[in-house]
UniProtKB/TrEMBL annotation:
PANTHER family: PHOSPHORIC MONOESTER HYDROLASE, UPF0655 PROTEIN YCR015C. One of its GO terms (biological process) is L-methionine salvage from methylthioadenosine. The lineage of its organism: Bacteria, Bacillati, Bacillota, Bacilli, Bacillales. This is 2-hydroxy-3-keto-5-methylthiopentenyl-1-phosphate phosphatase. Belongs to the HAD-like hydrolase superfamily. MtnX family. Its EC number is 3.1.3.87. The keyword Protein transport does not apply. Gene3D superfamilies: 3.90.1470.20, HAD superfamily/HAD-like (3.40.50.1000). GO terms for molecular function: 2-hydroxy-3-keto-5-methylthiopentenyl-1-phosphate phosphatase activity.
Length: 222
């Protein structure tokens, strides 16, 4: 008898768990000169995620630390059905990991009420000790990934080999596409749907996490 694979969700944060992209929201709110071109270059893949995010936050003075953190935490809106998805995963024995290109100073406090263990939240770090905000990169790319991701989602996923794990990706942007190519199941919205369509990667569209729960329930029943 073949042993059932362990099911694992790798869920993006910005624009997925939250309705908005928190990094772009922060930069747009404080509006330092030159940020829009950096965002455009990252989306168009002319600049790596790590390089672009680092450059954007370096535009912000650390003197605004409290304002930056307060704005990020207080303006994030959680996508409908997220708490229910967490409960569903616990009930069904699906391991849930947050794989985020976001930053610790807003990712951890926003997720605090959902009781997700810290060792299951992967994100970038921050350093406010100098004159400008510096982003730190505790989860860099490891071979074979050479995309300079910053927080490398495929590196995290490869710790869970496909022989024993069914890998489920939930995401919304080009930053999730490499992860989607490794996944057994992909739930996509926004830019990620366009990337998947263009390169023929199968996916299930979603708008709320109730859509994800419904699709996962169908898989459990079948």
């Amino acid at each position: 008898m073949t042993q059932a694979k362990e099911r694992i969700i790798f869920c993006d944060f910005d624009g997925t768990i939250t309705m908005n992209d928190n990094i772009v929201a922060i930069i747009r709110h404080f509006d330092p000169p030159g940020w829009q071109q950096i965002v455009d270059d990252v989306i168009a893949e002319r600049k790596s995620i790590r390089k672009g995010v680092g450059e954007m936050f370096r535009l912000l003075p650390t003197s605004k630390k409290d304002e930056i953190i307060d704005y990020a935490v207080n303006n994030a809106v959680i996508r409908e059905g997220f708490a229910e998805l967490i409960r569903f995963c616990r009930y069904e024995g699906i391991d849930f990991y947050v794989t985020s290109g976001g930053i610790d100073f807003f990712v951890y406090p926003i997720l605090a009420r959902f009781d997700i263990p810290r060792d299951r939240i992967f994100c970038n770090g921050s350093d406010f000790s100098g004159e400008r905000v510096e982003i730190t990169w505790p989860h860099p790319c490891e071979p074979p990934c050479t995309n300079d991701c910053g927080m490398c989602k495929t590196t995290i996923m490869r710790r869970f080999p496909p022989e024993r794990c069914e890998r489920i990706v939930i995401g919304d942007s080009v930053t999730d596409f490499e992860a989607a190519k490794l996944a057994d199941v992909v739930f996509a919205r926004s830019h990620l749907t366009e990337k998947c369509k263009a390169l023929g990667v199968p996916f299930t569209p979603f708008e709320t996490f109730y859509d994800v729960i419904d699709a996962l329930e169908e898989r459990v029943e079948s």
